[in-house]
Amino acid sequence: MSEPIDAVFTWVDGSDPEHQNKRQLYSSDGSLSGTHQHAASATRFSDQGELFYSILLARKNAPWLRHIYIITDAQVPAWLTPDMASSLDVHVVDHKVLFRDYENYLPIFNSMSIEAMIHRIPELSSRFLYFNDDFFIVRPVVESDYFVQGQSVFRGQWRWNSRVLKRVRKIARKLTNKKAPARADGLVGKRAEADMMGLWRYFALAHVPHPIYRDDFAQLMTDELIKDTVKFRFRNDKQIWPIGYYANYFTAKRRTRLLHNDWNYIDPSFLSSADDSNLLIENQTQKHLCIQSMDKLPVDVRENLLKQLDEMISSPEPMRAPN
């Protein structure tokens, strides 16, 4: 029998008045040099019910998952009743549990800082999938879609990490009055960890569940690196992205497998009609979907997407956690 695989989600309800007041109280931290331009933007903390669909689709399409953990800051999703939590085998983990021995860094409003601690969830399985709440598994998947012979399977594309090359391109665009090409691929890359590792190219990760080996992750996240990462309450360009660091570190050691084409990404900036969203969701070759900033989508598009997610989770079989 294979080792169990848990799922870990980060989630926040930014409309909660108590959470809003807390963010406001520490908003001065957002003025630190390097703070991301939209680090305190409301859309980063918006909750449109994505977590509900993400968890139910995970239970439906990845029934082999064991426990599901939701990392929160003194919050519980309104829909997560005790009966629902028991049925789906969902467990809420508070920031205070995750940041034990590092309590002086709380509160945190930065997913990258939180991700530096995910391996510290009590009783977490030795391998797990890490989700944002807007990641959806939309087709049936198996364990080998994520873990193969001791290797994590990451999805994304290679990107250059050359300051000189990027500077030349910027000058060329300025001279020719051309804008930088718009991206709607949902790839995530942070130069901080690429520079730290001395990489000339970087594997930018797709917005999909990320497969992590707990002990390997813990080995990378030393006390010094944890402190250097979690010191930022709000997202900052100077900090590393722990997941990207893990993926690229073990890719460099040839201990990962890389895929390039089984996900779709919905970005409000590139989606203007319900028909466009239909094309993305109905693509039968795609196993994963990310709906970025659902609160920014046109109302008709958002309603269409929610309707389709409702249809996806409907099933004659109860979506219960495996025994």
What does this structure look like?
By secondary structure, this protein is an alpha/beta fold. The chain contains 12 helices and 12 strands. It has a 5-stranded mixed sheet with strand order 3-2-1-4-9. Strands 6, 7, 8 and 10 form a 4-stranded mixed sheet that branches. The longest helix has 15 residues, at 299-313. It is globular.
CATH topology: Spore Coat Polysaccharide Biosynthesis Protein SpsA, Chain A
User: Quick one: how many beta strands?
Assistant: 12
Give the strand order of the largest sheet, numbering strands 1, 2, ... along the chain: 3-2-1-4-9
State the secondary-structure class. Answer: alpha/beta
Oligomer: single chain
What is the average of the pLDDT values? Answer: 83
C-alpha Rg, in Å?
19 Å
Please summarize the sheet with the most strands: 5 strands, mixed
Question: How are helices and strands ordered from N to C?
Answer: EHHEHEHHEEEEHHEEHHHEEHEH
CATH secondary-structure class: Alpha Beta
Helix content: 25-40%
Through-space gap between termini: 13 Å
What share of residues are in beta strands? 15-25%
Count of helices? 12
